[in-house]
């Protein structure tokens, strides 16, 4: 089931590449079909996950030899965390395609590149061989550059280049760590399951942990290495912003958890406090900067930094509450971030051709585009962590976890939560419910009537809203497999919740 | 009753909201029917719950308890006692009243939002796990925010935002308090926590959870108090209220004053009082001071207003102040049992009666506003009784009910509160009595200026209530008399619960 997600996505890419150019319009249908199939397989894998006690938490393992001489294998498998992120990838793939339904410029290339990113992301989340994981991780980087520089908007060349350079720098750090692991491991292997049993020398862990954590952290939006994210998000076409915020940033936090934290517990113990401080600064900084933005897409971009700060903080609390909250927050932010970018980039910008909050506020958007107003209100409520939406349970778990691990940081974290509410409310209020006009556009802001919101947009928005409310009301569906992946004594990450150094 | 009737109760308005939202916006008649049908179905269910409630046994009934998020000790926990049922009854009466008062101004959005608000209210009054409760409590902000904004003016938008910000930050303080409780006890279940507090253990466990720092109790109490005080509101956390009540359309003000403010008082009764009995006795002076200041300040503030809506808004704060006086008097003393029971019964009666009366007064102000083209200044009118005798008579009844005239519903609650509180805390109660006099002054001034005196030329053709409007307010007026004469109809519903509520 797991590898079928890769196969179906690959098949989609191949079909689109083979498509003659006069049938370019069919590309989006092929892409949608491929994304739906991929999601179907992810759901099937999630359904099939066996949570009985005693069952090995990493399941559906496939182990094929690849380059045996240097210990590289095609090893895939998934625990609860992987499965949840695979589900997220499927949802973002489907909705991203729905929100790109209006792409007419080179559609074959667009959807082929889009699916290539999805392929890479699916791959990272199920790789159990570090080399394989790194290959998939690299597959994600290059298509991003082309998608942004060809189909992007504001400052697209700059945004694309900055994003790529940061990603490549992160990759270089990860590669450095990988080489170190390979050299020091007792047997020549990249197999994560074997490596996790080995205790690396302390001196190595002390430098390898920050190198790898940082390498992944760059993509995860870790302050102060986050600056690629807002510019990249803003420059990217809608579907790519959704992908970046929705899943690509999760590659970073996932890698940090799966590789750096799992393999280097002693390094983690030593660097834990600095990471927690960076994460807290990041979540405060993201919120404060978002509060000052005039461009709506930048608000959403910086809100990603803010939310990913919560993820990073949750990860290093090293208790069940914080860790499970962090993973839930990865899912939750993927959905909410995707939804916010969909409204700002597709529903609003494609129609109004502006992202300036005060200009948008003058357009009487609640009357002109009521569906966009509704969607943005729901997404804002979810983003500020109101109960009933996915973000609430995730943030509350992280806060409780932080309380136990870093009581002093909790004060700053709470401040971050408060500012998150403030900037979200400010953006919502000024864009859709401005005080200075009573829903009637004045003479100078009068405009042609906007195209109505299309069916694919409605469908995409409904899928994402259902996901955030569904998880908000029934978080147990996701929390059970997550908890299983930490609490099972056979888990690779069991040591994380037991206090590392022991 | 089936075992999931309370879940069903919250689902009814949700389904109704969805139903209204899916109808095409031009079919406003159908949308209004959908709204009315839904609220009447909910009223029917609440009445049948009240009928099936075992009054002699009292306590929590219709219990539904399931695991929800076990890792955080969050259960799906619904149950109702006399207090909950009384509030469910109020909610299911005032909501259709407001929907009908909205009348021709109804839109698809407003009907859906009102139903959504009703769902969150039902949830708030029945959920007994803090997080489950908080879910409804906070969600109510979204429909309330959008409904206040429907006032349309720039000031309405500002008032909506101010309301949202005040309440959400109050909510934060409260959430932080409960996170601290969870940190120390690992529990969110309000009933279990209350049992722990009843045995006098909660304070020590809380302090132990924070390394023996016993001040934490005060901090947690303060956080929860702040959250609820904003919602009620308690002076000086009330500044969002006059703008919100004034700028909203009158039917929305009916919901705000009739129902939303009750969430705060309910929170005091359900969350704060059972969890911190010892601490509340310790804080007797400041708590009573809050109540007295709220009563007296709001009464004088109402006296100084010239806008009808602002007068009623401040009078609302004043009336809820009486609830707090009774509540704090009971919670902070060890007086004789019957005085405590009297005061507490008074508090619960006052909650219901204020909801009914204030909503009705706002409904009348709405009638006046539509006739005067938006004018509602105290000095804009005069002598209306000659041209609109029915309006004068019926609104007069509800104003006298608000004033606490014997024979009408407002009297019994206030009387019981003052009777009980005077025995328990004579000083504070005597000070609060100033509020009673001032209330009489400003309400009589209102009647005098609007309905008596010379009739200005321009109101010579001021239309009286239409038949539809008479039918709309008739049930409310009738209920004022019924509850004024037989308050035991309501008291029997919650008498047993009151005895259990006494700390």
The amount of helix of chain B comes to over 70%
Principal-axis shape of chain B equals globular
Helix and strand content put the structural class of chain B at mainly alpha
Q: Sketch the topology of chain B as an H/E string, one letter per element.
A: HHEEHHHHHHHHHHHHHHHHHHHH
Q: What are the secondary-structure elements of chain A, in order, as H or E?
A: HHEEHHHHHHHHHHHHHHHHHH
Major sheet: arrangement of strands of chain A: 1-2
Main sheet of chain B: which strands, in order across?
A: 1-2
Q: Helical region count of chain B?
A: 22
Query: What kind of sheet is the major sheet of chain B?
Result: 2 strands, antiparallel
Which pair has the most extensive contact? A-B, 33 and 32 residues
Radius of gyration of chain A (CA) equals 22 Å
Measured by DSSP, the beta-strand proportion of chain B falls in under 5%
Oligomeric state of the chains in view: heterodimer
Note the main sheet of chain A. 2 strands, antiparallel
Regions with little confidence, pLDDT below 50 for 5+ residues of chain B? none
**Whole-number total of structural domains of chain A:** 1
Unreliably modeled segments of chain A:
438-444
Features:
heterodimer; A: 502 residues; mainly alpha; two-stranded antiparallel ribbon; 20 helices; 2 strands; B: 503 residues; 22 helices
Overview of this protein structure:
The complex is a heterodimer of chains A (502) and B (503). By secondary structure, chain A is mainly α. Chain A has one domain (2-498). In chain A, 72% of the residues lie in helices and 3% in strands. Chain A is built from 20 helices and two strands. Chain A has helices at 2-18, 27-47, 80-98, 107-126, 130-151, 156-184, 192-195, 202-219, 228-235, 238-263, 265-291, 296-317, 320-352, 357-361, 365-368, 370-383, 390-405, 407-432, 455-473, 476-487; strands spanning 59-67, 72-78. Chain A has a two-stranded antiparallel ribbon. In chain A, helix 1 packs antiparallel against helix 4 (107-126). Mean pLDDT of chain A is 87; it is low at 438-444. Chain B is mainly alpha-helical. Chain B has a domain at 283-503. Chain B contains 22 helices and two strands. Chain B has a two-stranded antiparallel sheet. In chain B, strand 1 (61-69) and strand 2 form a beta hairpin. In chain B, helix 3 packs parallel to helix 16 and helix 14 runs parallel beside helix 20 (426-451). The radius of gyration of chain B is 22 Å and the shape is globular.
């Amino acid at each position: 089931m797991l590898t079928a997600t890769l196969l179906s996505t690959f098949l989609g890419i191949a079909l689109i590449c083979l498509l003659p150019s006069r049938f370019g319009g069919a590309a989006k249908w092929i892409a949608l079909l491929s994304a739906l199939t991929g999601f179907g397989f992810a759901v099937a894998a999630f359904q099939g996950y066996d949570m009985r006690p005693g069952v090995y938490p990493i399941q559906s393992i496939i182990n094929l030899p690849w380059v045996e001489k240097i210990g590289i294998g095609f090893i895939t498998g998934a625990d609860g965390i992987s499965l949840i992120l695979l589900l997220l990838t499927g949802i973002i793939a489907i909705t991203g395609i729905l929100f790109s339904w209006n792409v007419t410029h080179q559609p074959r290339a667009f959807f082929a590149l889009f699916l290539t990113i999805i392929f890479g992301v699916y791959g990272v989340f199920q790789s159990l061989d570090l080399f394989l994981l790194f290959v998939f991780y690299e597959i994600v980087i290059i298509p991003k550059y082309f998608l942004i520089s060809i189909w992007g908007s504001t400052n697209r060349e700059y945004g694309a280049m900055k994003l790529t350079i940061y990603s490549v720098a992160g990759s270089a750090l990860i590669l450095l760590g990988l080489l170190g692991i390979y050299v020091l491991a007792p047997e020549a292997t990249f197999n994560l399951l074997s490596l996790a049993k080995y205790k690396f020398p302390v001196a190595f862990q002390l430098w390898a942990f920050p190198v790898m954590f940082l390498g992944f952290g760059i993509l995860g939006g870790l302050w102060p290495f986050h600056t690629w994210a807002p510019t990249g998000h803003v420059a990217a076409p809608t579907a790519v912003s959704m992908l970046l915020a929705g899943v690509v940033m999760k590659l970073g936090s996932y890698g940090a958890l799966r590789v750096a934290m799992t393999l280097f517990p002693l390094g983690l113990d030593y660097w834990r406090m600095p990471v927690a401080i960076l994460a807290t600064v990041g979540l405060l900084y993201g919120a404060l900067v978002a509060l000052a933005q005039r461009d709506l897409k930048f608000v959403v971009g910086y809100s990603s930094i803010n939310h990913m700060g919560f993820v990073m903080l949750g990860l290093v609390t090293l208790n069940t509450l914080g860790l499970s909250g962090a993973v839930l927050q990865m899912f939750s932010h993927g959905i909410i971030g995707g939804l916010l970018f969909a409204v700002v980039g597709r529903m609003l910008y494609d129609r109004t051709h502006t992202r300036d909050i005060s200009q948008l506020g003058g357009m009487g958007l609640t009357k002109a585009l009521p569906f966009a107003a509704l969607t943005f209100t729901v997404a804002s409520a979810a983003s500020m962590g109101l109960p009933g939406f996915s973000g609430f349970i995730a943030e509350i778990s992280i806060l409780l976890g932080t309380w136990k691990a870093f009581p002093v940081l909790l004060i700053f974290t709470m401040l971050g939560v408060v500012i998150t509410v403030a900037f979200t409310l400010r953006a919502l209020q000024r864009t859709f419910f401005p005080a200075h006009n009573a829903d009637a556009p004045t003479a100078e802001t009068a405009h042609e009537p906007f195209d109505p919101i299309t069916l694919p947009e409605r469908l995409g928005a409904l899928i994402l809203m259902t996901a955030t409310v569904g998880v908000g009301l029934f978080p147990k569906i996701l929390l059970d497999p997550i908890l299983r992946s930490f609490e099972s004594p056979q888990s690779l990450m069991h040591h994380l919740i037991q206090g590392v150094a022991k | 009753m089936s075992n999931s009737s309370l879940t069903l109760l919250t689902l009814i308005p949700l389904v109704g909201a969805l139903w209204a939202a899916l109808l095409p916006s031009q079919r406003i008649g159908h949308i209004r029917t959908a709204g009315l049908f839904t609220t009447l179905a909910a009223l029917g269910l609440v009445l049948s719950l009240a009928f099936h409630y075992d009054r002699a046994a009292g306590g929590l009934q219709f219990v539904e308890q399931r695991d929800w998020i076990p890792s955080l000790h969050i259960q799906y926990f619904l149950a109702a006692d006399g207090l909950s049922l009384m509030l469910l009854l109020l909610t299911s009466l005032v909501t259709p009243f407001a929907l009908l008062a909205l009348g021709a101004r109804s839109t698809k959005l407003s009907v859906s939002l009102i139903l959504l608000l009703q769902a969150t209210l039902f949830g708030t009054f029945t959920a007994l796990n803090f997080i489950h409760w908080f879910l409804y409590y906070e969600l109510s902000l979204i429909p309330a925010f959008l409904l206040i904004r429907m006032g349309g003016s720039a000031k309405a938008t500002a008032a909506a935002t101010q309301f949202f910000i005040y309440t959400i930050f109050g909510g934060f303080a409260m959430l932080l308090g409960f996170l601290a409780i969870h940190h120390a006890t690992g529990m969110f279940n309000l009933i279990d926590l209350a049992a722990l507090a009843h045995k006098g253990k909660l304070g020590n466990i809380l302090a132990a959870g924070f390394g023996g720092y016993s001040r934490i109790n005060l901090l947690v109490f303060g956080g929860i108090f702040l959250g609820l005080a904003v919602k009620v509101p308690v002076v000086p956390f009330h500044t969002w209220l006059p703008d919100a009540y004034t700028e909203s359309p009158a039917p929305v003000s009916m919901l705000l004053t009739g129902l939303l403010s009750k969430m705060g008082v309910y929170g005091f009764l359900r969350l704060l009082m059972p969890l911190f009995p010892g601490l509340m006795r310790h804080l007797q002076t400041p708590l009573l001071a809050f109540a007295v200041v709220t009563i007296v300040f709001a009464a004088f503030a109402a006296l100084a207003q010239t806008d009808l809506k602002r007068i009623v808004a401040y009078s609302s704060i004043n009336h809820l102040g009486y609830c707090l006086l009774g509540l704090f008097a009971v919670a902070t003393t060890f007086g004789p049992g019957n005085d405590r029971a009297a005061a507490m019964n008074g508090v619960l009666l006052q909650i219901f009666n204020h909801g009914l009366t204030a909503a009705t007064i706002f409904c009348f102000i709405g009638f006046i506003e539509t006739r005067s083209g938006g004018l509602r200044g105290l000095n804009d009118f005069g002598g209306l009784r000659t041209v609109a005798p029915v309006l004068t008579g019926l609104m007069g009844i509800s104003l006298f009910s608000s004033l606490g005239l014997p024979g009408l519903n407002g009297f019994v609650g206030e009387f019981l509160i003052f009777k009980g509180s005077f025995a328990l805390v004579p000083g504070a109660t005597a000070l609060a009595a100033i509020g009673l006099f001032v209330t009489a002054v400003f309400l009589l001034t209102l009647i005098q200026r609007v309905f008596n005196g010379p009739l200005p030329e321009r109101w010579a053709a001021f239309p009286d209530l239409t038949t539809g409007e008479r039918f709309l307010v008739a049930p409310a007026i009738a209920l004022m008399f019924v509850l004024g004469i037989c308050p035991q109809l309501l008291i029997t519903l919650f008498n047993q619960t009151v005895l259990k509520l006494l700390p």
